[in-house]
Amino acid sequence: MSGPTTYPGEIFTDTSDFDAGIRLLLPHYDAMLDAVANCLPATATQVLELGCGTGELSLRVLRQCPSARLTAVDYSPRMLSYAQAKIEAAGFNRVSWIEADFGDWAEGGLEALPINSFDACVSSLAIHHLRDPLKQSLFRQIHRNLKPGGCFWNADPTPPESQVLARLYQIVREAWTAQQGTALAAVKAKTGHGKPTHGHSSHDHLATLSAHLTMLEDAGFHNLDVPWKYYGLAVFGGFA
Ligand SMILES: C[S@@+](CC[C@H](N)C(=O)[O-])C[C@H]1O[C@@H](n2cnc3c(N)ncnc32)[C@H](O)[C@@H]1O
């Protein structure tokens, strides 16, 4: 085996393969991220992003919220430097990049983050790497650090509520990749030899949509909603 060992969530050995590869692996990735960003108030001045990766959602947040300062957290130095270069090349200088594990923040650590000060928190394809009890702690921590009326929107895989639809969800995903002219196997050949765990994250710990909504409600969020869903992918969240 060659190349760097990837952390959970990095997916590709070479970070520069991520943007094209994720679009082949996941149906309607762009529409999903657009849905997250569209939910943000254009008046937001402070936005927190958890697991920014290569900065595809960060870019959308900066465009949607022209006055906002974005605090972008990721535990991968490779992802952070890739995102930073992309965002700077796009002409934005409103981002604080923080190399940290958002699981530590869920447990009350991470003094680097401002407290109680965010108009919004967003995340995509990252929180599902935490086990459910830590997801729950993270949702509480997000709620505590939003201004009253602030919002949280998360895009993540959500498995079907029953096994009846599991095969259908899988078929839809494989058909998507086949439509792009590439077999799923060929895309997966570019994925990294991932570390099974790094910090608080490990390989997928998928929770159903209803389980997520229950956790969000328990964390204090209200007016929960699901502005976008496509088979096993969903954007969901609510207000503090
Ligand atoms: C699949 S990528 C998604 C990146 C980006 N949000 C997107 O939608 O394209 C998941 C990202 O979450 C980061 N990540 C996973 N677990 C993390 C944790 N516990 N703390 C900080 N970052 C984490 C990974 O390094 C990776 O950059």
List keywords for this structure.
240 residues; alpha/beta; Rossmann fold; two-stranded antiparallel ribbon; 36% helix; globular; binds S-adenosylmethionine
Describe the structure.
The structure is a single chain. By secondary structure, this protein is of the alpha/beta class. The protein has one domain: Rossmann fold (3-Layer(aba) Sandwich), CATH 3.40.50. Helix content is 36%, strand content 23%. The protein has helices at 18-25, 29-38, 56-64, 77-89, 102-106, 132-144, 166-179, 184-188, 209-218; strands spanning 46-50, 69-74, 95-99, 118-124, 146-157, 197-198, 201-202, 222-230, 233-239. β8 and β9 (233-239) form a beta hairpin. The longest helix is centred in the C-terminal third of the chain and has 14 residues, at 166-179. The termini are far apart. The relative contact order is 0.19. The structure holds S-adenosylmethionine.
